Amino acid sequence: MGSITRAIANNLTNDLGGAGGINFKNILINGDMSIAQRGTSTSSVSTTQYASLDRFQMLTQTAGSAVFTLSQDTDVPSGQGFAKSNKIDVTTALGTYASSNLTIFRQRIEGQNLQYLKKGTSSAESLTLSFWVKSNKTGTYVAEILDSDNSNRHINKSYTISSANTWEKKTITFAGDTTGGTLNNDNGVSLDLGFWLGAGTTFSSGTLQTSWGANTSANRAVGQVNLADNTANEWYITGVQLEAGTSASDFEFLPHDVNLQRCQRYYYSFIKDKINEEIGCGGYYSNTQIFVDIPFPVTMRADPTLDFTSGTDYYGVYRNSAHDTFNSFTIGQSGINLIGLYNNSEVSGTAGHAGFFRTNNASSSMAFNSEL
């Protein structure tokens, strides 16, 4: 019986974690840049926003002076198993950042996913970041881990892009934070992983904070090049992995469906630029109010907000051999597993009549946003 038990255990280990299995060791989501629910390209990025690639946010504070396009690209390091990368292209240059200007490409991480790091205790885990990067703009760049739960404590390490237009693999180890406070065990943001792309003197005039310390703005991006100083500049990244320990392991590739579901916890693109797309079944609550419930494919992080395209006849409710068209939805009942939507200003029907909802315009889009 002992040998049978061991065989079963070994099979489970291989299925879940060993011999190339899945451990979910990567703290980050969509590090291979394969999921782009918002679309494969977002132009005119001049303020902070989630753009193109899922889970990665462009944090830019340059008063609109620097403008970027973020896109999913097929330029990847050869022979590494990656199919996609994230490309940041400068479309409006900013030769010199004002003192308070900054640009960071970052991912925000839930505290309840980080408890095993034991941050703020004597057993705090080190973290190792590995990634592939490419740019025509060579020089010094800065990667940062920021602790939102403890007054923005931070640790920053530099890396160098040595060869222009060449994929290079970088590995950076951050020491564990043994004294800086624990992370909240909840669904709020606890840590940010950030890649600096530009920094004014407010963030670069001190000494780089290479060990954990209190929030000191001047120490966050010392030596950082200005990617935005020329419209010819581009910056690519893929294979981003952050894991516990002092060494980098091979990138953990997840099945596409698993990767997508992990992204849908934060952003669910229900309809994207489609006509005659089914939305769901609902009805008339009153003669002038329609309602429809939409279930989510996964539990969302928190009650989401609604992103939709409004305009002319974007949605329709079909019933009794007729249909009404309308242009907007409002959240009636919100939740993390299902949401109720209604419209009470553009329709006219009979209370109690049921119908089905579908898009009525090729530009119709609807998404649910629960990002950190």
Summary?
This protein has 372 residues and is mostly beta strands. It contains two helices and 22 strands.
Comma- or semicolon-separated keywords:
mainly beta, Jelly Rolls, 2 domains, 6-stranded antiparallel β-sheet, 6% helix, globular, disordered N terminus
**What class, by secondary structure content?**
mainly beta
Radius of gyration: 24 Å
Overall average pLDDT: 94
Number of domain modules: 2
Tell me the distance between the termini: 49 Å
Q: Which fold name fills CATH's third level, the topology of the largest domain?
A: Jelly Rolls
- Just name the CATH architecture of the largest domain: Sandwich
Helical content (DSSP H or I, runs of 4+):
under 10%
Strand content: 35-45%
Sheet with the most strands: spatial strand order:
18-17-21-14-15-20-19
Tell me, what's the shape?
Answer: globular
Q: Unreliable segments (pLDDT under 50, ≥5 consecutive)?
A: 1-20
Count of runs of 4 or more consecutive helical residues: 2
**In total, how many beta strands?**
22
Along the chain, the helix and strand elements come as HEEEEEEEEEEEEHEEEEEEEEEE
CATH classification, class level of the largest domain: Mainly Beta
- Main beta sheet: 7 strands, antiparallel
**CATH homologous superfamily (4th level) name of the largest domain:** Galactose-binding domain-like
